[in-house]
Amino acid sequence: MARENAPTEKVEQARxxxxxxxxxxxxxxxxxxxxxxxxxxxxxxxxxxxxxxxLRRFQDRAGASLEELTTAxxxxxxxxxxxxxxxxxxxxYQSAVKGFYRWFEAGNVDPAEIAVKSDQKTGIDEQSVLxxxxxxxxxxxxxxxxARCIIDLFGYTGQRIRVIQTLRVKDVDPSAGATGSYxxxxxxxxxxxxxxxxxxxxxxxx
Length: 206
Description:
Elements: H1 6-16, H2 23-31, H3 45-62, H4 71-82, H5 87-103, H6 132-140, H7 145-157, H8 161-165, E1 172-173, E2 181-183, E3 200-202
Antiparallel strand pairs: 1-2, 2-3
Helix pairs in contact: 1-3, 2-3, 3-5, 6-7
């Protein structure tokens, strides 16, 4: 499974999901592309992909183009999102929207009014982590091979439920590297910032 050009391909896929009327989102996506010849700050390809998708989704939630929105409109959408998504997920949208309005100076939105909030905590509560024996007991108690496979995914990747829920067949390559690899589905919402560090992970990485 060839993945060398995966980041570039995913950026192009994100741009193809834009409609013909999303020209400003496309222009911004191209402006922050690290391969862009334009002068100005750029982002990693992974961030370009995430920003492009999140700006499209945010615009759909708002029910109007980003060019037409006011500061009050944007803040109202974020208030609604806070009741549906994890704070870190909303923060990803806030970062994308704030960046867009810093670039799109002709808009009616003051980017300084967009606060990027995060509730991401550092450290691990040792009492919440299964011991090796507890993990194997749980695995042996699985009702069938499907349940055992799901337990293995949690145990050997160390990922949250939402990450495993959103994995697609094409995101997993058991033959990659020494232990196999998987790629987080960055098109999914609710990953709580897990995709910020890197998308590609070892299957036996926990």
